[in-house]
User: Fold this.
Amino acid sequence: MSRAELVVGRADNPPLLPLGTLIGRELRGRIKDDNPFLKYGQAALAKKGEDYFLIKPDCQRIPGDPSTTFSVFAIFDGHNGVSAAIFTKENLLANVLSAIPPGVSRDEWLAALPRALVAGFVKTDIEFQQKGETSGTTVTFVVIDGWTITVASVGDSRCILDTQGGVVSLLTVDHRLEENEEERERVTASGGEVGRLNVFGGNEVGPLRCWPGGLCLSRSIGDPDVGEFIVPIPHVKQVKLSNAGGRLIIASDGIWDALSSDMAAKSCRGLPAELAAKLVVKDALRSRGLKDDTTCLVVDINPSDIPIIPSPPPPKKKQNFLNSILFGKKSLRSTNKASKLSAVGAVEELFEEGSAILAERLGKDIPDQKSGVIKCAVCQADQPLDDPSGNPGTFFSPPSKHWEGPFLCTTCRKKKDAMEGKRPSKSTAGTK
Assistant:
C-alpha cells in the first residue's frame, strides 16, 4: 500500500470514540473559552465595629458592555475609628480605575492593573489625610477578571487561594512590624522608630510598634498621626487559574489571629461559599473568642454554574514542597512561567511586587510633549507644559535635569518624598 493510500485509508475509517469522550471534549473546549462563574458568601462578628467589606461582582471595564465584566471583593479593617475604612471603601475602586488608560484591550487592562492599584491606594490615602482625621485602615483588595486574580494589600488582612489540587497559597504579605523584618528596616531607614510599649519600671510589653503613634503595622491607608513612613503602597500579586477553578478566602486579622491559612481552608472544604464563610468565622470564635472584629469573604471561582467545591488532597501529598514551587517569595514578572501541580488546579503566576519605593512601582514614563499636557501618575491631574523644552509648570515639581518620572504634582511628590524619608514628617504623636 502506498503512503497516499495509507493516509486516505485512515481518513475514511476513523477510530470510533465513546459518546462520553466526545461530550467531554466539547465541554472542555467550551469551558476553556468561557469566563468562570463566581459563588460567594460573607460572614462577620463585630467587637468594635471597625471592619467593612465590599462585594461588587458587576463592574464593567467598558460601561454598558457585559463582556467586559469583572468583580471586586475587599475587606477594610479600620483602627482608631471607622472613617478611614468607610472612605476607602467608597473611593478606592474609582481611584484605581482612573489610573488605567481608557479604551485598552482586556490584556492591556490586566497588565496595567498592578500599577493602577498602587496609584489608587496612594491617591486614596492623600485624599483621606486631607480630611484632617486620624483613623486608619488595612486593605485587602481583590480584582477577578476571567481566570485572572489580582490582589493588592496593605496591613494584616489576608487573602488565600485554595486550588482544586488542595494546595493553599498566600496571595498577600503581612505588614506587621513584629513579623516583617524587611519592613522594620524600611521604617527605621525612613526616620521612624520601632520598639515595644514601655511601662512603668522600663519594662517593654506587647508587639513591636512604630513611634510616634504606636502603630504595629508598617503599611496602611490613613493614620496621618503616626508618620508618613507608614505607607499606603500595596503589595500586589497577580495569578491566573486553570479552568479547574479555586476558592479565595479573604478575611481580617480577627480570623488569622485564630486560624492558620491551612486551618481556614480545611475547615470549610466541601461546603458552599456562604456556609463556608460562616464556618470560618465560627471556628475562629471557637479557637480564640471574640477579641477583635472578624470578617470573612469566601469566593468560589467555578468553570460552570454548578459549584465545584475544593476537596481535600490525597493524604500523602507533600503540600509544603508543592506550595514552594507554586508561590516562591521571589518576584516573578514573566508571563510564561507556569507551575503545574497536576492536570487539576494549575496556577500561573503573572506578577508580584511589594517595594515601597513609588518610583519602582509607577515607572518613568516620558510625557507626550506634542499634546502640551502632563498627567500626574498618582492623582491623574492634567497640567499644561510651560514650554516645549519639557519643564513642567508650577503645579508640578520639576525633575532635576531630565524627565525622570514618575511625573507627580506638587502634592503627590511631597507625599512620595515623605514616604521615602526625604524630609522630616510633620505628623504628631498619637496612639492606635
About this structure: Residues 176-216 form one domain.
